[in-house]
């Protein structure tokens, strides 16, 4: 499977098309079906468009609601819908559609706030990947609809991790400081050692206009998209705990200036 900008997995597209067919056959709208299944209509839409993987328990509930006698569940198994797949195939769409993003990074700057040179070092000079990352950042500059509200929590380690040398680090920190006057983006530093809630790695929680939520979690092997309520609740709890440990925006700005001048000048 390829990265950003490539086709969605065909098994998701095929499964979603069948969900749409069966839903329309019984005369339900996406919102009506979502209400009966206790999910949002937009969530049903994402499944039908092949943008997200439908979990087995929801598939079973759909099958029962639509009176399919197990046909949809069998299709889920036939299409190997349980197969793991990288989450980045659709995450940029999530960023573009959401109204809020809450991000935590333990070792590097959050992608939407990276400078081009900083990203180039992390992406090992892959210019196509760098261009894709920079293109994602357009969501922060759009006018219609307004850009999402973004809160980024960065551990102190981020500011001591030498990505690309002094010039790259200084430019990157200056870029982060520029966001401290933004009405839409807040950057907060978590001082000291990485707290227990942050040891599992970086994550982002996206909130859509209908208040539905989706999360992206970094792991050693791949990024993972999470939609299960229990998983989301755990990440939201971790984010709240991390934010409680973070410096306020003005103190975070002072911290960044101090580190930039003392370490990266």
TrEMBL record:
Gene3D superfamilies the record matches? lambda repressor-like DNA-binding domains
SMART domains the UniProt entry points to: HTH_XRE
Question: Which GO molecular function annotations are given, in alphabetical order?
Answer: DNA binding
What is the annotated signal peptide range for this record?
none
Q: Which residues form the HTH cro/C1-type domain?
A: 19-51
Q: Pfam families attached here?
A: DUF5753, HTH_31
Question: Per its UniProt entry, which superkingdom is the organism in?
Answer: Bacteria
PROSITE patterns in the record = HTH_CROC1 (PS50943)
Q: What is this protein called?
A: Transcriptional regulator with XRE-family HTH domain
């Amino acid at each position: 499977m390829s990265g950003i900008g490539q086709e969605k997995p065909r098994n998701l597209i095929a499964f979603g098309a069948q969900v749409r067919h069966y839903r329309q056959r019984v005369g339900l709208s996406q919102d009506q079906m979502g209400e009966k299944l206790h999910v949002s209509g937009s969530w049903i839409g994402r499944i039908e468009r092949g943008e997200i993987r439908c979990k087995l328990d929801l598939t079973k509930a759909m099958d029962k609601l639509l009176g399919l006698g197990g046909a949809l569940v069998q299709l889920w198994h036939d299409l190997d819908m349980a197969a793991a797949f990288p989450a980045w195939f659709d995450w940029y769409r999530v960023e573009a559609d959401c109204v809020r993003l809450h991000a935590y990074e333990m070792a590097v700057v959050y992608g939407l706030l990276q400078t081009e040179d900083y990203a180039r070092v992390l992406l090992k000079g892959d210019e196509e990947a760098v261009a894709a990352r920079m293109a994602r950042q357009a969501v922060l500059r759009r006018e219609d609809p307004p850009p999402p509200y973004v809160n980024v929590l960065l551990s102190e380690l981020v500011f001591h991790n030498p990505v690309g040398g002094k010039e790259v680090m200084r430019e990157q920190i200056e870029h982060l400081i520029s966001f401290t006057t933004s009405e839409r983006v807040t950057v907060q530093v978590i001082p000291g050692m990485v707290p227990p809630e942050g040891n599992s790695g970086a994550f982002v929680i996206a909130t859509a206009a209908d208040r539905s939520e989706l999360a992206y979690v970094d792991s050693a092997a791949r990024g993972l998209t999470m939609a299960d309520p229990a998983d989301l609740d755990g990440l939201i709890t971790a984010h709240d705990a991390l934010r409680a440990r973070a410096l306020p925006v003005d103190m975070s700005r002072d911290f960044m200036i101090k580190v930039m001048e003392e370490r990266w000048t």
